[in-house]
Amino acid sequence: MRIPAHSVCTAIRDDIVAGVFERGSRLTEEVLARRYGVSRVPVREALRTLEAEGFVSTRRHAGACVAEPSAQEAADLLEVRLLLEPLGAARAAQRRTEAHLKVLRGLVRLGQERARRGHSEDLRSLGGWFHETLAQASGSAGLTALLTQMRHKIAWMYTVEPQGRAVEDWAEHGAIVDAVARGDAERARALTAQHAERSTAGHRLRFPGDGGRVGRVIAVRGSQHSVNMASGRN
């Protein structure tokens, strides 16, 4: 049975994000085909996709290699996140389904419980599922794909240092879901912008010598005032 290229693409991307393949290392079709138990055809297709996403680059005389993004490219990625995630939340407020809300509320309840009990090992995956579901609720396949790709690249380029804000983070998630449930696009946008902005301070570049901590909080375009987290909640 032929394994689809997107499955191979996911496997290679996951290994790049996990650091199995280091930045700048060669990615030969033959070695990858053996690693994943597939032919070279889906590997070739996967590498083309990953090059378009920015995880792979092609070098003369070397072929496909793991990309080596600069510190500026990494900083730009966080700035793009501050623009796209609020847009996704605003769209979700307009287009979400009851099924989306059910999943989001379930994740918030679970995240808040884990945060109160200090189960930090579960919170990263729960946070990923939350943001993935919020993106899907936007009703835009293109925007969802961009947000998913962006999260993969941020996970590859950065580690996130604990800031002791787990309870506050999940309270913010809950407020975002409340705004989405009410169809309040502007409040969902503003709350998500603030949430993303606050989390930026904990990001540190994974790559030695690339500048360490991102030492600035990027101003959110269009955000003119702070939003009271407690107001307007059900």
Automatic annotation (TrEMBL):
- Record keywords, A-Z: DNA-binding, Transcription, Transcription regulation
Give the matching SUPFAM superfamilies.
GntR ligand-binding domain-like (SSF48008), Winged helix' DNA-binding domain (SSF46785)
Entry's PROSITE patterns?
HTH_GNTR
Q: Does the keyword ATP-binding apply?
A: no
The answer, when asked if Mitochondrion is one of the entry's keywords, is no
Please name the InterPro entries in this protein's record.
GntR_C, TF_FadR/GntR_C, Tscrpt_reg_HTH_GntR, WH-like_DNA-bd_sf, WH_DNA-bd_sf
Annotated HTH gntR-type domain ranges read: 2-69
A Pfam family per the record:
FCD
| Record Gene3D superfamilies | GntR ligand-binding domain-like, Winged helix-like DNA-binding domain superfamily/Winged helix DNA-binding domain
Record-given protein name: GntR family transcriptional regulator
